[in-house]
């Protein structure tokens, strides 16, 4: 029947729809589970990566703080070295003052001895003096030439950064040489003014002794330019080097310098025209020009002797003004003084050599300190660049992590909403299924009732048709006799009329009943059709939602690509960390070298203090024997033997 076929078709469609819904639910749940697992793994990896980056950040910050502290310590050490250098300059300035005082005393002695020279002796001394001046000029010329050649070689080897400093040093060296030449001329003019005519000529040893004495007087202006060049090229104004070029025959046991000390050949008078603009104070000039009590006594003695001799007898030119005995005694004293002054001092030689080596080491140390500072600046710049790159990378990672977190939270919310919608759909589908089953049961019951009613009606129809035929047959079989009278006909009509009314009433009742059943069935069919359309619309919406969720799959591929990029950036950070470790090791090596240079500076300060103490003791000594005893008491062969001060 059409109704049964339609119901069977509806059942088949419902079954297919239910199967499709189950398949879609299973596929959707499977995809959501896979997506959530992938998101969980990605989120775990991101959290681990962020934790590793935070750890590296903290480690790099600690290392940067350590390097900053080390840099502050290095700056503090450099400041201390600068202060020690200033103290050392002050100490050597005092030493120069002492040397100037001793030189002044020697010049006074020379003046006394020149007062007793004859004109012939003065002429011989002048010849020797000129010859010594020529030799000194030749030596200075050779020294300057050798030093210029060595400077040219050093400039060829030196980096381009030091070229400007060497040019400045050479320019200032020329100015310094001009000033030194002027000082040289002034000292020579002073020597020429001090020469006085006297008596008989001296023997050859005496002239040699006075030659040495005059060379001592002239050695003050024979300033070597190599020491000034070296000090200017290095940028250090060491007044301490002024004692480097003084021969031990000039000052005896006071200095005792070797000829090896040509690199530090700057004398006390040369310190008056140092490139740094150093000048003697008024007190120092007064100390140089003033006479000591011994000199005053000697001058008064000589003046009294000279006045007595002149009043007694005025000798002609070319004769002595003293007696033979006094002359011999004076000659012996001068010879003894020359021997004492010309005696070499091992202690002073060792001091000078050690001072020379220490100054060279100090220059090397300062160069190393400059290199270390440059390397530290480069390391700090590299660390700053690394920190900036790390901060940028951390910001990008943080931003990407936040975006990923927002996306993951949005996807989780969508997944939760999808799960809620799926549950609602499942509940709605189960409810619709139950309603459909109930309606099917009701329809089955109504169908059975309708079939029963149809059977009953059929039976009634059959019975009615049978009765009608029976009645017709009976009527035909019976002889219908029309009534004769009107009354009988009226009764018969009324009877038939009542029968027709009853039959019509029954027919109308049956017709109404059948119409109601038909309307009910039509309404049921329409309700089933509406339910079917609703189910189709719901399934279509679910299919569209599934398609939208499938559209998120390319975003997952983008997340994977982002994770790969982050892993590459992590490898770059690890390489930067290795580079930073290498820089840290280099900084430690530089710190070790800086400690060594600091130790050298301390040794240099210790040596300068010891020399200052020795010079002070020598200055306070009253005689040459006392000076010799002081120098012999201290015999050092190594700087480590110096006492702590």
TrEMBL record:
Where is each Rabaptin coiled-coil domain found? 1-307
One GO molecular-function annotation for this sequence? GTPase activator activity
What Pfam families is this protein classified in?
A: Rab5-bind (PF09311), Rabaptin (PF03528)
Q: Where is this region: Disordered?
A: 127-157
Does the record carry Acetylation as a key word? yes
> What are the record keywords, sorted?
Acetylation, Apoptosis, Coiled coil, Cytoplasm, Cytoplasmic vesicle, Endocytosis, Endosome, Phosphoprotein, Protein transport, Transport
Annotated signal peptide: none
Gene Ontology CC: early endosome; endocytic vesicle; recycling endosome
Domain Rabaptin GTPase-Rab5 binding, first and last residues per copy: 345-577, 581-621
Transcription among keywords: no
Origin, by domain of life? Eukaryota
Record-linked SUPFAM superfamilies: G protein-binding domain
GO BP, one annotated term: protein transport
Where would you find this protein in the cell? Cytoplasmic vesicle; Early endosome; Recycling endosome
Which segments of the protein form a coiled coil according to its record? 7-98, 362-396, 433-467, 504-593
Q: Which Gene3D superfamilies match?
A: 1.20.5.340, Single helix bin
Basic and acidic residues compositional bias, start-end: 148-157
Similarity comment? Belongs to the rabaptin family.
PANTHER family attached to this UniProt entry? RAB GTPASE-BINDING EFFECTOR PROTEIN, RAB GTPASE-BINDING EFFECTOR PROTEIN 1
Its biological purpose is as follows: Rab effector protein acting as linker between gamma-adaptin, RAB4A and RAB5A. Involved in endocytic membrane fusion and membrane trafficking of recycling endosomes. Involved in KCNH1 channels trafficking to and from the cell membrane. Stimulates RABGEF1 mediated nucleotide exchange on RAB5A. Mediates the traffic of PKD1:PKD2 complex from the endoplasmic reticulum through the Golgi to the cilium.
* Official protein name in the record: Rab GTPase-binding effector protein 1
Species this chain originates from: Ursus americanus (American black bear)
């Amino acid at each position: 029947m059409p109704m049964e076929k339609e119901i069977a078709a509806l059942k088949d469609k419902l079954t297919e729809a239910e199967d499709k819904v189950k398949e879609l639910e299973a596929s959707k749940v499977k995809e959501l589970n896979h997506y959530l697992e992938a998101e969980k793994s990605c989120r775990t990896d991101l959290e681990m990566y962020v934790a590793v980056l935070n750890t590296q950040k903290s480690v790099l910050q600690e290392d940067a703080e350590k390097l900053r502290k080390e840099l502050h310590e290095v700056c503090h050490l450099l400041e201390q070295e600068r202060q020690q250098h200033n103290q050392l300059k002050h100490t050597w300035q005092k030493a120069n003052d002492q040397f100037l005082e001793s030189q002044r005393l020697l010049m006074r002695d020379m003046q006394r001895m020149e007062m007793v020279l004859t004109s012939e002796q003065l002429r011989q001394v002048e010849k020797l003096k000129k010859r010594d001046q020529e030799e000194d000029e030749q030596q200075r010329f050779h020294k300057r030439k050798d030093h210029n050649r060595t400077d040219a070689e050093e400039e060829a080897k030196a980096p381009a950064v030091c070229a400007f400093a060497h040019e400045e040093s050479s320019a200032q060296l020329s100015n310094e040489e001009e000033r030194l030449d002027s000082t040289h001329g002034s000292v020579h003019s002073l020597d020429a003014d001090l020469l006085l005519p006297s008596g008989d000529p001296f023997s050859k040893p005496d002239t040699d002794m006075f030659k040495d004495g005059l060379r001592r007087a002239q050695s003050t202006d024979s300033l070597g330019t190599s020491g000034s060049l070296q000090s200017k090229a290095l940028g250090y104004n060491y007044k301490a080097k002024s004692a480097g070029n003084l021969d031990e025959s000039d000052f005896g046991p006071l200095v005792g310098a070797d000829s090896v000390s040509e690199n530090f050949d700057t004398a006390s008078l040369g310190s008056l025209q140092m490139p740094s603009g150093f000048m003697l104070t008024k007190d120092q000039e007064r100390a140089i020009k003033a006479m000591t009590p011994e000199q005053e006594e000697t001058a008064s003695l000589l003046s009294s002797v000279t006045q007595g001799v002149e009043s007694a007898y005025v000798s002609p030119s070319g004769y002595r003004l003293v007696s033979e005995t006094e002359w011999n005694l004076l000659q012996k004293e001068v010879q003894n003084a020359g021997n004492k002054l010309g005696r070499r001092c091992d202690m002073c030689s060792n001091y000078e050599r050690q001072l020379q080596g220490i100054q060279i080491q100090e220059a090397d140390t300062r160069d190393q300190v400059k290199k270390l500072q440059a390397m530290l600046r480069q390391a700090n710049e590299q660390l700053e660049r690394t920190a900036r790159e790390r901060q940028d990378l951390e910001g990008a990672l943080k931003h990407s992590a936040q975006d990923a977190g927002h996306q993951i939270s949005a996807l989780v919310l969508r997944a939760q909403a999808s799960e809620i919608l799926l549950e609602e759909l499942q509940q709605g589908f189960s409810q619709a299924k139950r309603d459909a089953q109930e309606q099917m049961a009701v329809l089955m019951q109504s169908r059975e009732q309708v079939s029963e009613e149809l059977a009953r009606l059929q039976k009634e129809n059959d019975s009615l048709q049978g009765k009608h035929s029976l009645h017709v047959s009976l009527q035909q079989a019976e002889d219908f006799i029309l009534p004769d009278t009107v009354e009988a006909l009226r009764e018969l009509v009324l009877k038939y009329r009542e029968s027709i009314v009853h039959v019509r009433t029954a027919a109308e009742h049956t017709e109404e009943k059948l119409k109601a059943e038909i309307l009910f069935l039509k309404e049921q069919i329409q309700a089933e059709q509406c339910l079917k359309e609703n189910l189709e619309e719901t399934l279509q919406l679910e299919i569209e939602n599934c398609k939208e969720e499938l559209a998120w799959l390319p975003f997952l591929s983008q997340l994977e690509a982002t994770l790969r990029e982050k892993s590459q950036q992590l490898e770059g950070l690890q390489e930067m960390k290795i580079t930073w470790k290498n820089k840290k090791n280099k900084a430690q090596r530089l710190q070790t070298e800086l400690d060594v240079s600091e130790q050298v500076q301390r040794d240099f300060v210790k040596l300068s203090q010891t020399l200052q103490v020795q010079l002070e003791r020598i200055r306070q000594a009253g005689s040459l024997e006392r000076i010799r005893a002081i120098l012999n008491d201290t015999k050092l062969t190594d700087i480590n033997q110096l006492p702590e001060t």
